[in-house]
């Protein structure tokens, strides 16, 4: 049976002055509804390119992406993206930033009161109700990322795409946001694809870790199912043998089997 999301034999060539550059070669990945999938791999291997193809921002040269039986050819609110550097409109308050997304998806379909309740609900999911009327310049980097996540969730996307969402944050803020994301995930059961460089983050959050080979012509080297029971608690996992096994598998893949050669 077809999976919810199929990345089907995807290859992409970028035009360069020296001819086409094959960034991805024959990437195949099947994702179930509600699965949390992390993509990990060395810098420049093609993680963002995979995400941009799923997001409809790039077109595959060969193959394609099928979401719930429909081919993806352009960007759409059914695939909301959260970037590493929050992309909030600086002249709008946190509430208004989420409102813009909600109106674009639900305007004309839901009443004003329903939309207001929905915006407030999503802000409370990321624990930002207290600052909803502040401007982005008045809140911290971690809080901005929370608003970015609320905005993405508020569109009720079929797939939430996260490109190193916590990469620019300090370790403690990052840990808080990972915990929040796990809580939200437990409540909403979103289908998520997240790019990360952080092995612990990948094991903590994921149902599946996709490990990419080095480019050019990068592909998927290995897919590992993470069968740790949920809810997951970082403190308890520190001494968990299975957790450490998953962690060492990813480290081994990245630093032994597919170590990046530095020129
Ligand atoms: N628009 C483009 N034109 C030409 N080459 C590109 C383009 N986008 C990406 N590439 C190349 O494709 C390869 C994969 O890039 P990509 O950004 O997907 O890697 P990444 O794994 O996300 O890297 P990082 O972890 O550093 O963010 C790189 O060699 C990059 O230079």
UniProtKB/TrEMBL annotation:
Pfam family, one: ABC_tran
Domain ABC transporter: 5-239
Keyword field: ATP-binding, Cell membrane, Membrane, Nucleotide-binding, Transport
GO molecular function, one term: ATP hydrolysis activity
Protein's UniProt keywords contain Protein biosynthesis: no
Subcellular location per the Swiss-Prot or TrEMBL entry: Cell membrane
Membrane topology, record value: Peripheral membrane protein
Main location: membrane
Transmembrane segments: none
The keyword Transferase belongs to this UniProt entry's keyword annotation: no
Domain of life from the UniProt record: Bacteria
Any one of the GO CC terms: plasma membrane
Family, as annotated: Belongs to the ABC transporter superfamily.
NCBIfam families to which the protein is assigned, alphabetical: ntrCD
Protein name, per record: Nitrate ABC transporter, ATP-binding proteins C and D
Originating species: Methylophaga thiooxydans DMS010
């Amino acid at each position: 049976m077809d999976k919810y999301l199929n990345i089907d034999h995807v290859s992409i060539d970028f035009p360069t002055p020296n001819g086409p550059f094959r960034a991805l070669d024959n990437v195949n990945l099947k994702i179930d509804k509600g699965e949390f999938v992390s993509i990990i791999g060395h810098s420049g291997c093609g993680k963002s390119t995979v995400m941009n193809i799923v997001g409809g921002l790039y077109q595959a040269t060969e193959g394609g992406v099928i979401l719930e039986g429909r081919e993806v050819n352009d960007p759409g609110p059914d695939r909301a993206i959260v970037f590493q550097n929050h992309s909030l409109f600086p002249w709008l308050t946190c509430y208004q930033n989420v409102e813009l997304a909600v109106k674009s998806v639900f305007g004309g379909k839901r009443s004003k009161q329903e939309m207001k309740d929905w915006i407030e609900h999503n802000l409370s999911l990321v624990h930002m109700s207290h600052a909803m009327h502040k401007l982005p310049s008045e809140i911290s980097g971690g809080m901005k990322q929370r608003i970015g996540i609320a905005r993405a969730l508020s569109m009720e996307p079929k797939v939430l795409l996260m490109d190193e969402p916590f990469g620019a944050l300090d370790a403690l803020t990052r840990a808080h946001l990972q915990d929040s994301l796990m809580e939200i995930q437990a409540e909403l059961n979103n289908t998520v694809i997240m790019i990360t460089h952080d092995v612990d983050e990948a094991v903590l959050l994921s149902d599946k870790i996709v490990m990419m080979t080095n480019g050019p012509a990068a592909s998927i080297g290995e897919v590992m199912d993470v069968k740790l029971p949920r809810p997951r608690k970082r403190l308890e996992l520190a001494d968990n043998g299975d957790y450490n096994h998953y962690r060492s598998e990813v480290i081994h893949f990245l630093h032994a089997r597919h170590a990046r050669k530095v020129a």
